[in-house]
Task: inverse folding
């Protein structure tokens, strides 16, 4: 079969105008991008996390590779190892411990019933009905048992997401120059706008990753010391749990020291339980509120309202990684609104100057016509 000559295609007239072809090309690109995002939606957090960690570790990268001249691949592998050791392994280990304890309580609901009855005796107020509570606990145990296959699937998805994140980080660092040049080439913004967006990303990461880690670390240490002083079992474990819980807005560490205080009250340790609840409400919650706002303002110059609303928005849409993505989205929205204001102002000034020049030309030509 003979191939079709290329001259034949050039001889056929295309039915679309140049503008129509341009619009169809843009629509095709948007459609394909939407299709890819829809297909990768389950693993989108891997790419978002890779981008955030790229910003977090890039100062190290610049200091070691660009300034000291260390081997690019060795530094990249070192960053990936630090990511796994500092972030992935602790998170996975803590999740496994929590799941094991939840499953243990679900298999023996009588322990929870005994604890509730002791709490009722301690406070002198009956707030449970034995039949209803027993039924609720049995239903909860059934639901937890039904979660086991989902937990196994989630663990597999977690490993896949971590693998994709590390793979993406590797190529972002190894091909740093091409990655940054590609952003400048394909983002529909001027260089000044890209610089503003980059500063906004860096500020949000500093305020909502590094700052949040410091806040969570302080709260975890305070919670662990408080539980240790009040003789709560496993204070070190619950201090680590409080560290991770502190990343959740509003709820956070009260999910740890609140039940601990109630537990001590149920055991007849009135002073210890009351101390935990009072110190938790007076000190630990205020440490969260004050220190979070101070660090967000100092480390990233982010308005506290943006941080608070962004945290709620991000966690609702993206899950745990939304702690960074949410404030970033709001900051980008504000930056783009400011960019639009500047661009619109420049456009209006240029348009006004063009009309002024046109009127001047027309005014100068009118006497010439009369002459």
Result:
């Amino acid at each position: 079969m003979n191939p079709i000559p290329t001259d034949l295609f050039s001889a056929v007239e295309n039915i679309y105008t140049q503008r129509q072809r341009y619009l169809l090309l843009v629509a095709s690109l948007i459609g394909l991008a939407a299709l890819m995002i829809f297909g990768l939606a389950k693993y989108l957090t891997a790419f978002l996390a890779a981008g955030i960690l790229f910003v977090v570790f890039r100062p190290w990268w610049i200091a070691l590779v660009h300034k000291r001249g260390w081997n690019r691949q060795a530094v990249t592998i070192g960053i990936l190892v630090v990511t796994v050791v500092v972030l992935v392994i602790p998170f996975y280990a803590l999740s496994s411990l929590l799941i094991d304890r939840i499953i243990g309580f679900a298999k023996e609901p009588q322990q929870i019933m005994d604890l509730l009855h002791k709490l009722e005796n301690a406070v002198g107020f009956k707030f449970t009905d034995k039949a209803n509570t027993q039924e609720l606990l049995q239903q909860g145990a059934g639901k937890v048992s039904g979660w086991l296959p989902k937990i196994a699937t989630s663990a597999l998805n977690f490993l896949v997401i971590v693998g994709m994140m590390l793979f993406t980080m590797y190529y972002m660092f190894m091909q740093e120059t091409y990655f940054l040049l590609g952003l400048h080439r394909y983002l529909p913004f001027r260089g000044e706008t890209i610089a503003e967006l980059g500063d906004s990303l860096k500020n949000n990461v500093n305020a909502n990753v590094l700052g949040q880690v410091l806040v969570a670390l302080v709260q975890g240490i305070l919670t662990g010391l408080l539980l240790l002083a009040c003789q709560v079992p496993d204070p070190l474990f619950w201090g680590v749990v409080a560290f991770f819980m502190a990343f959740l807005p509003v709820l956070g560490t009260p999910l740890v020291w609140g039940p601990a205080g109630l537990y001590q009250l149920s055991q007849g340790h009135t002073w210890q339980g009351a101390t935990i609840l009072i110190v938790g409400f007076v000190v630990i919650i205020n440490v969260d509120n004050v220190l979070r706002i101070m660090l967000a303002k100092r480390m990233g110059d982010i308005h506290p309202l943006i941080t608070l609303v962004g945290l709620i928005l991000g966690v609702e849409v993206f899950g745990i990684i939304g702690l960074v993505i949410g404030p970033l989205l709001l900051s980008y929205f504000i930056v783009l609104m400011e960019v639009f204001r500047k661009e619109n102002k420049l456009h209006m000034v240029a348009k006004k100057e063009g009309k002024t020049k046109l009127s001047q030309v027309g005014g100068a030509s009118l006497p010439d016509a009369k002459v």
DSSP finds 13 helices and no strands in the chain.
